[in-house]
Design brief:
This protein has nine helices and four strands. The chain has 233 residues and is α/β, with parallel strands linked by helices. Helix 2 packs across helix 7. The longest helix is centred in the middle third of the chain and has 36 residues. The mean pLDDT is 76.
């Protein structure tokens, strides 16, 4: 069994209070370690957004995880790349500590080049989405002013291609978020099923008892469990 230091992070006060995300990340890391011959020798949990150039200075748990991994000569593992950071510059900076990182969603064989590439692609995607959304809002305001009506204008009749593109992008992003959420909660559902809970209602009850929340922050019901399983399928 190879040693692995686990790093978990949530970035909002609401998630910190509810535990939303931490348990899912812990379940993902546990399942990943078991499947790939790792032993988690330490776990560090952070409740910090980590934004800015001094992010590592304000994330003591990440610094502690790096230090322990360096002492043991092992890697730091995270469930998803964005648990390290959403910025490629920050991810690149972490590589200078000469501690390897393993991202469960990318697999045990993802090398530093792949991590840089995925971080760069994610950052570019966020920039494009932000730019398109802002452009669509500007165009929408212009057309509302021209129409001069108090009622909400029919953007389809106005023929706003930028707004339609933004809507398509938003739908795509919502789908991606739903897929990501399903991927993080599936390991917990699998563990619950392994205990003998086979019905949707029993699984929902177990998720609520463990403190998991739905994507909207509510309680689990049979239908919400069914939706996650259907999306995973």
């Amino acid at each position: 069994m190879r040693p692995l230091v686990s790093y978990l992070r949530v970035s909002t006060a609401k998630q910190k209070k509810s535990g939303l995300g931490i348990e899912a990340q812990r379940a993902t890391m546990s399942a990943f370690a078991n499947a790939n011959g790792f032993e988690i020798v330490g776990e560090f949990v952070e409740f910090e957004s980590g934004k800015g150039s001094d992010a590592l200075d304000r994330r003591p748990q990440l610094a502690a995880a790096l230090a322990k991994a360096k002492r043991l000569g092992c890697a730091v593992g995270v469930a998803k790349l964005d648990r390290l950071s959403r910025h490629v510059h920050f991810v690149s900076g972490l590589m200078t500590h000469r501690v390897p990182f393993i991202v469960a969603e990318l697999g045990a064989d993802a090398d530093p080049f792949m991590l840089h590439l995925f971080a760069a692609l994610a950052e570019k995607e966020r920039a494009l989405i932000s730019s398109r959304t802002k452009s669509a809002l500007v165009e929408a305001r212009k057309r509302v002013a021209v129409v001069g009506q108090k009622k909400r204008p029919d953007f389809k009749k106005l023929g706003n291609p930028n707004l339609e593109a933004a809507r398509e992008t938003a739908n795509s992003v919502r789908g991606k978020l739903a897929d990501d959420f399903a991927a993080t909660v599936l390991p917990a559902i699998a563990e619950i099923q392994a205990t003998g809970a086979t019905t949707l209602r029993a699984i929902a009850h177990a998720l609520n008892r463990r403190g998991f929340k739905t994507p909207r922050g509510g309680e689990w019901a049979a239908m919400s469990v069914s939706n996650v399983l259907a999306r995973a399928a």
